[in-house]
Design brief:
It is built from 3 helices and 22 strands. With 386 residues, it is an alpha+beta fold.
Length: 386
């Protein structure tokens, strides 16, 4: 509005007659022409894919190095570690536990005295049995002496055959009584020996069930001894995978999935029957534990390694791009992409890795997720991530 313009003198004026009729046709023609021109005008999309002359921007997470590896149809399992050898040491007869020399965690050697039962009653029984045996031996010696006398008298015609036969039967009875007395004494002697509980093998005390002064019944458990130098891993394998497992196969397993420690073993036995509760087949694996760094009774996860793995170059399966003639990967070389034809030898579904061969070398840098817009010889640049 111009300065000083007086709005009170403004008077609205209508266009002259026929004005809109005259221009209506012209506006329609202009609108149609504009629509046609827009449709025919070339469109420049700012989001079009880069041409082969435009550098492709990459970061370190977009590429990976090819590595030479071996892979196969590994069989995955869960299982429990158990001692290869273990024994529960029981009381062979009822009595008072007068001594127990070890506690849980102690290491013992074969033959070590671990516990002692009261033998006072057994000692008395032993002395009685020993005296009985001596009496039976004396009676047998007297019977033998009498038989010898009758035989001498018989040679001179002073004894009959009946007397000699009777003396011989008496000797046989006394000899049988000697044998019975010796067996009774041996039994009591064995009880005396059983009163001393010794370690049957080198190992560690896993549990102690009684204390000195307790009166324990015959057969009562006193100690549990385990050999931790070797462990047995009972692995439960799916029935669909058991055909892939044979003895002597190598095994790799871990105790805690949060660390990178892995342990090795070897399949030694395969159960012929699946468990009824879960239809999984127990496979028994020997584990060398001479360093004693694995405890028994823990849960583990692992895999039985394929006995005939496939060797080649490993890279993420996502780096493979299918073409009309096969598979290819894009290798970054001298700041350019190179399309390389490859063959897929093996796919590891668990690790999402593939074993390949072809026009790719170990340690080559490849694009992990190639798209259809990538082109051979296309220049690339790596973004500064510092």
């Amino acid at each position: 509005m111009r300065e000083g313009y007086d709005m009170t003198h403004f008077t609205e004026q209508s266009p002259p007659a026929g004005f809109w009729k005259k221009w209506r046709g012209r506006l329609i023609i202009l609108g149609v022409a504009g629509t046609v021109a827009y449709a025919l005008w070339p469109v420049h999309d700012t989001a079009t894919a880069p041409t082969s002359d435009q550098p492709l921007l990459l970061s370190s997470v977009d590429v990976t190095r090819v590595a030479r590896e071996s892979a196969g149809h590994d069989v995955f399992f869960t299982g429990t570690l158990m001692p290869w050898q273990q024994a529960t040491l029981n009381a062979h007869f009822s009595g008072e536990l007068v001594a127990i020399n070890v506690k849980a965690g102690d290491t013992v050697a074969e033959g070590d005295v671990l516990a002692q039962l009261d033998t006072r009653i057994i000692e008395s029984q032993y002395q009685q049995a020993l005296a009985a045996l001596q009496a039976r031996r004396l009676e047998a010696a007297q019977a033998r002496q009498k038989l010898d006398q009758i035989k001498k008298l018989g040679a001179k015609g002073f004894s009959s055959t009946a007397e000699r036969d009777a003396a011989s039967r008496q000797l046989d009875i006394h000899l049988a009584q000697v044998e019975s007395a010796e067996a009774a004494l041996d039994q009591i002697r064995k009880q005396k020996e059983d009163a001393v509980i010794r370690a049957p093998f080198d190992g560690s005390i896993a549990q102690r069930f009684a204390d000195p002064g307790e009166v324990v019944p015959a057969g009562a458990p006193l100690l549990k001894l385990v050999d931790m130098h070797r462990l047995e891993l009972e692995a439960l394998v799916s029935s669909t995978d058991i055909a892939l497992v044979t003895t002597q196969q190598q095994v790799s397993f871990s105790v805690d999935s949060t660390d990178n420690l892995t342990y090795q073993g070897q399949v030694v036995r395969i159960n012929p029957e699946a468990r009824q509760d879960n239809r999984r087949v127990p496979v028994y694996i020997e584990v060398d534990n001479r360093l004693a760094n694995l405890p028994a009774g823990i849960f583990v996860q692992g895999r039985i390694l394929d006995a005939n793995p496939v060797s080649g170059l490993a890279l993420p399966t996502s780096a493979l791009q299918q073409t009309a003639t096969g598979w290819q990967v894009f290798v970054v070389n001298n700041n350019h992409l190179e399309a390389k034809n490859v063959s897929r030898l093996f796919d590891n579904l668990a690790s999402e890795q593939s074993i390949i061969n072809g026009a790719v070398n170990n340690n080559d840098l490849v694009v992990i997720l190639p798209t259809s817009s990538l082109a051979d010889k296309q220049p690339v640049e790596f973004m500064d991530e510092g």
